[in-house]
């Protein structure tokens, strides 16, 4: 692969001379070609054992197609992880408006805490649940049938002992989940061996116990369905927000006050099960989760498209907190990752988004913002005809030349944003951009602006070709970021199994890979 990539460039000038070799080398370095991913179906089969998944509410009834696809697939996997670990509590990091959280609670009867640092998002989650409440009757009918079927199936078909194996295609299996493997990057084969045996308590359970449990489950069916599928009446959704940034360690007074507020809210509730609670908080690996979640128990931590450093911090929180037995994290917004070696200054105590693993830290590895921006591009979408916005990219490139040559600005903390769609012409685009960047637009006449446009417009095709090469390279950069996170988990002693799983259709959802891990005591 290295030879193929090298041969794509001229040895003397280092210019690209063979686009085909470049594309083939990039493809060979993508996750789909490296064979380091665990197939989703094999993962689900290993988690389920002889149990079958349940069918229920269709998410496309209250979500767009992309979000529906993501929530449907991820919620099924999370439920299976929770069931395998014997867990009923889920913490959704960066929960936003609560799409995943509400579905996990509604469809799978899991107790979900959705944590987001934005009060706006938390309030949005509350409002969304209020609207979903209008549809509860239809959900109730479907949910009653699903839960009754699921309850009877658990009573009649609970496996006493089962051994499930899954092997990755064309790769050798890893060690048992009971021991932590120490592979290098080329050994990060996603094969897994789940061995499930019941605990001593389960071994003591008799058929009479199971029958009694079944009867009890059926007697509670109506109120369980109501609690789940009423999609949370307003008084069942508790909103917690901190007056100060929770990234700082809470003082004792704040801890006591937060617990008192939580207890009062619970005491004043309607008596229904509070299955989904949106919380406003900013948490790190140092945060005491008991200060935020008063009834914290063993749980699964999840994150659906956690932005930038939040994806890396989710894994750090998972490894630091003994209560968190498993994690399923899908990251996004690679361009917002902080990098330890991007700048020359050293910040020894800073927590960085990249690199995470010791292997890349020892090498001082740095991607840079341009590479991270490229990693966000969607090759699969381009491949099916969803082309890049060439004209808007051209506008942005010429604008940068204008700003550098006329204002001497080469770097700014301000962003132009989505001005192209609001602009009627290139002149209008430049005027609005200069205003947003707080630069004096009177220095440039309209004719001067158009001169820049005319000077560079013949290079638009060149810019398009360059961006297409960036698209081809995007999966290779994403591989580096994802394998860094996986290697970090492999370095932790408490992790029984970790791997990468392709969850989503990349055309519908380009950031489609989940980092998944289970701790040793999660495997029984």
From TrEMBL:
Record-linked Pfam families: Methyltransf_32
InterPro entries noted in UniProt: Methyltranfer_dom, METTL25, SAM-dependent_MTases_sf
Gene3D superfamilies xrefs: Vaccinia Virus protein VP39
Ranges of residues in domain Methyltransferase: 66-340
Signal peptide (from-to): none
Protein name (Swiss-Prot/TrEMBL): MET25 protein
């Amino acid at each position: 692969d290295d030879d193929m990539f090298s041969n794509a460039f001229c040895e003397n000038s280092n210019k690209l001379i063979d686009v085909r070799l470049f594309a083939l080398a990039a493809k060979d370095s993508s996750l789909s070609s490296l064979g380091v991913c665990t197939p989703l179906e094999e993962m689900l089969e290993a988690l389920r054992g002889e149990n079958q998944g349940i069918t229920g509410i269709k998410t496309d009834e209250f979500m767009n197609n992309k979000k529906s696809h993501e929530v449907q697939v991820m919620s099924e996997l999370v439920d299976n992880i929770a069931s395998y670990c014997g867990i009923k509590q889920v913490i959704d990091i960066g929960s936003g408006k609560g799409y995943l959280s509400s579905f996990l609670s509604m469809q799978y009867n899991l107790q979900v805490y959705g944590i987001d640092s934005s009060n706006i998002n938390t309030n949005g989650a509350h409002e969304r649940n209020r609207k979903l409440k209008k549809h509860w009757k239809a959900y109730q009918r479907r949910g009653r049938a699903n839960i009754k079927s699921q309850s009877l199936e658990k009573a009649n078909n609970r496996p006493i002992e089962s051994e499930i194996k899954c092997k990755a295609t064309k790769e050798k299996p890893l060690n048992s989940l009971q021991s932590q493997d120490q592979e290098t990057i080329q050994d990060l084969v996603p094969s897994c061996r789940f061995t499930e045996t019941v605990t001593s308590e389960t071994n003591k359970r008799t058929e009479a116990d199971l029958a009694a449990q079944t009867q009890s489950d059926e007697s509670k069916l109506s109120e369980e369905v109501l609690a789940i599928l009423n999609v949370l009446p307003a008084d069942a959704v508790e909103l917690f927000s901190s007056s100060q940034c929770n990234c700082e360690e809470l003082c004792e007074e704040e801890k006591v006050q937060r617990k008192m507020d939580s207890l009062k809210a619970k005491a004043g509730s309607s008596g229904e099960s509070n299955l989904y609670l949106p919380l406003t908080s900013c948490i790190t690996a140092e945060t005491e989760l008991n200060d935020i979640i008063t009834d914290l128990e063993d749980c699964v931590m999840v994150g659906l498209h956690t932005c930038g450093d939040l994806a890396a911090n989710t894994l750090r929180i998972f490894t630091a907190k003994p209560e968190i037995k498993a994690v399923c994290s899908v990251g996004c917004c690679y361009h917002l990752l902080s990098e330890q070696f991007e700048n020359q200054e050293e910040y020894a105590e800073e927590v960085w988004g990249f690199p995470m693993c010791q292997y890349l830290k020892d090498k001082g590895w740095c991607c840079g913002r341009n590479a991270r921006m490229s990693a966000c591009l969607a090759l699969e979408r381009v491949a099916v005809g969803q082309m890049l916005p060439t004209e808007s990219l051209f506008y942005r490139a010429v604008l940068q030349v204008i700003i550098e040559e006329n204002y001497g600005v080469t770097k700014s903390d301000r962003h132009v944003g989505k001005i192209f769609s609001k602009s009627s012409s290139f002149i209008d685009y430049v005027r609005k951009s200069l205003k947003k960047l707080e630069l004096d637009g009177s220095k440039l006449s309209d004719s001067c602006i158009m001169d820049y446009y005319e000077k560079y417009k013949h290079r638009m095709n060149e810019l398009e070709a360059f961006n297409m090469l960036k698209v081809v390279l995007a999966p290779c950069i994403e591989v580096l970021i994802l394998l860094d996170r996986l290697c970090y988990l492999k370095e932790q002693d408490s992790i029984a199994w970790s791997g990468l799983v392709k969850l989503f259709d990349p055309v519908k959802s380009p950031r489609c890979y989940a980092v998944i891990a289970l701790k040793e005591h999660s495997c029984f």
